[in-house]
Design goal:
The protein has two domains: 4-121, Rossmann fold (3-Layer(aba) Sandwich); 131-218, Regulator of K+ conductance, C-terminal domain (Alpha-Beta Plaits, 2-Layer Sandwich), CATH 3.30.70. By secondary structure, it is of the alpha/beta class. α4 (78-91) links the parallel β4 (69-72) and β5 (95-99). Strands 3-2-1-4-5-6 form a six-stranded parallel sheet, sandwiched between helices. It has a five-stranded antiparallel sheet with strand order 7-8-11-9-10. Helix content is 39%, strand content 26%. The structure holds adenosine-5'-diphosphate. Adenosine-5'-diphosphate is lined by residues 8-14, 31-34, 37, 52-54, 73-77, 80. Adenosine-5'-diphosphate (ADP) binds next to α1 and β2.
Length: 219
């Protein structure tokens, strides 16, 4: 059975979510108050409707409650975002993901029961800053305020050495939990696994420790 999603707010963020979900084969009901946006997405989404989601009767009439997952991508208008979240939560929607504009908005959303709160601009800023600090840091997944998993490309300073040679865990307190090598991926690599030039290391740990490793090994 196809997965079914509702995306509310068809700005840049919501719009790209609709496009990607459809590309991945999901059914998507796209909603916006703006006629032009809805016209644009009528050709892309499974269904696109004009509606104001701060109106409870409207939400009920659209049957949003029956969808597995609702994404609220209302940007600027924080009040509409909060009200929509509240109404959907009261109606018993199981999974609600909401885009937060700032930390206060995020805190309110968490208090009223949003299941996932995302900060796309902030996260993208962090990701780009990390990439700028070192071209060897390819990607970044935040686990907490202080911990993350980073994809780090092996350069000639570490290629040819095994994990035991580098002794990364003892020296930096971080762990290499996987190695991407071309199409292959080595999960939990053995201590004597030799790193090759161009390998992508999946490193988990505290941000300060990972950054210390990157600075030392990749400068
Ligand atoms: P982004 O920063 O992702 O581009 P925008 O703030 O530009 O986000 O877009 C948010 C979209 O949400 C707009 O197209 C706007 O018309 C829509 N929107 C705002 N309030 C509501 C609402 N109550 N119901 C439905 N859509 C809404």
């Amino acid at each position: 059975m196809k997965k079914e999603f509702v995306v509310i707010g068809l700005g840049r963020f919501g719009g790209s979510i609709v496009r990607e979900l459809v590309r991945l084969g999901a059914d998507v009901l796209a909603i916006d108050t703006n006629q032009e946006k809805v016209d644009e997405f009528a050709k892309i989404a499974t269904q696109a409707v004009i509606a104001d989601t701060t109106d409870e009767d409207v939400i009920k009439s659209l049957g949003i409650r029956n969808f597995e997952h609702v994404i609220i991508a209302i940007g600027e208008n924080i009040q509409n975002s909060i009200l929509t979240t509240l109404i959907l939560k009261d109606l018993g929607v199981k999974q609600i993901t909401v885009k937060a504009q700032n930390d206060y908005h995020a805190r309110v959303l968490e208090k009223i029961g949003a299941d996932f709160v995302v900060h796309p601009e902030r996260d993208m800023g962090i990701r780009i800053a990390n990439n700028m600090m070192s071209s060897n840091v390819l990607d970044y997944l935040e686990l907490s305020d202080e911990h993350s998993i980073m994809e780090i490309k092996a350069n000639d300073q570490i290629a040819g050495y095994s994990l035991i040679d580098l002794d990364i865990r003892a020296k930096y307190g971080i762990n290499i939990v996987g190695i991407k090598r071309g199409e292959a991926i080595i999960i939990s690599p053995a201590a004597d696994e030799k790193i090759l030039l161009g390998d992508i290391l999946l490193v988990i740990g505290a941000d300060v420790d990972i950054n210390r490793f990157v600075k030392k090994m990749m400068s």
